[in-house]
Amino acid sequence: xxxxLTVLKRDLxxxxxxxxxxxxxxxFFLIVSSLFPLGIGPEPAVLSSIAPGVLWVxxxxxxxxxxxxxxxxDFADGSLEQMLLAPQSLALLVTAKxxxxxxxxxxxVVLLAPLIGLQYALPNNALLVLVxxxxxxxxxxxxxxxxxxxxxxxxxxxxxxxxxxxxxxxxPVLIFGAGAxxxxxxxxxxxxxxxxxxxxxxxxxxxxxxxxxxxxxxxxE
Amino acid sequence: MLSAQGxxxxxxxxxxxxxxxxxxxxxxxxxxxxxxxxxxxxxLRMLCGLLTPEEGTVFWLGKKIKQDSExxxxxxxxxxHLNGLKDDLTALENLQIGAxxxxxxxxxxxxxxxxxxxxxxxxxxLPVRVLSQGQKRRVALAVLWLTKAKLWILDEPFAALDVAxxxxxxxxxxxxxxxxxxxxxxxxxxxxxxxxxxxxxxLSA
Lengths: 221, 205
Description:
- Chain A is an all-alpha fold.
- Chain A contains nine helices and no strands.
- Chain B has six helices and nine strands, in the order βββαββαβαααβαββ.
- The radius of gyration of chain B is 17 Å and the shape is globular.
- The interface between A and B is medium-sized, with 24 and 30 residues.
C-alpha cells in the first residue's frame, strides 16, 4: 500500500510540475467539442441531438492523446524498471498510475463537460446524466488505454498505434455513455446505461491492470 | 545465496552468450567483464528477472527467482545504466521515492544524509534536470546508503563519476561486503573493492 501511495503521489506531483501537459488535454477537449457547433450551425434541436455522441467522442479522444505519456517517460528514464523491481505486485502499482492519469486527464474533462454541454443546448437533467456517465465511464477509458500504452511502449509511432489498438475497445463505453445521455433527453431513465457503464469500469478495474502489467513486462525485455 | 546455471542470451537472432553459471555467497563480489555488446547488461537484467533467459535458471536461496519473486526483489537493489530519475523532481524527492518503492521508508534527514555521503547534498533541492551526468549518477547511487538489500546489481556504477566519488562508492561497496552483502558489477575501470571473495566472469560469444 505504501508503494501504491508513493506512485500515486509521484505521478500527481509530476503532473503538477508539468501543468502544460494537463492543459493540453483539457484544451483539446474544449476545442474539439466547440468545433462542432461552429461547423454545424446554431440550430438547438440539431445540436442537442448530436451532443451526447460528440461530447463522448471528444472526451474519448482527449483521454487518448495523453495515453502515450502514461508509461513512455518512465520507460525512457529507467524508472519503469525500478517499478518492475519493486517488491510489490506490478498490477497494483499500475492501478496507482492509472488512477493518477484519470485524476489528471479524466476528472477535469468530467468537470468541464456540463459547461460544454450548455453550448449544445442540453437540458439540465441531460447535463446531470452527462456528468454521471462520464464519471462512471472515463475510468474504464484510462484503464483500457493503459493496456494499449503498455503494449506500444518503445515502438516507433506509438501514438497512432495506441489509437488503433484502443479505440475499438472504447466502443462499448461510448455506446452506453452516449446512450445514457440520449435516453435522458428522450425522457427515459438512463439507469440501465449507467449501470452498464459502471459494470464496464469495474470489469476494466479487475482485468486491465493485470493485462497492463503483463504487457509492461514484455515491453521492458 | 545467488546462483545461476546454464544461462544463455539471445538478442534478435544473435547469441550473446551461453552456458554462463556462477555461485555467489555472502560477502562475495562478482565482476562481469566483456567487450561492449558482449551482453553484460543483458546478463544483469536477467539476474534481476527483467529479462527472461533463453536457457538456464537463476536461483536465490535455492529457489527460482520467479517462484519467490517478492522475497527476492526485497533483497535486491539494481541500478542499471539508466538512472531511473525523474527530471522534474528534486534529487531529494527522487531518492525518497526510489527508496519507498523498494520498501524502505526514509525521512528527509536520512535521505539528505545519504546525499551528503556521496557529496551531492548541496544539489538536494534542485530538479534533477539541471544536474550534470555525473551528479545524476550520484543521486541514483545515493540509494545504496539507504537500502537494506543484500544483493546489489550495479551496471557500470563508476561511469561518469569523478575520482573522489569513485573512492567513496568503492568504500561503500567494501563496507557492504564486510557486512555479508553481495555485489555483482560491471565496470571498465580499475577500481579496488575489498570483498571476502572476488570472482570474475568473462563473457564472450
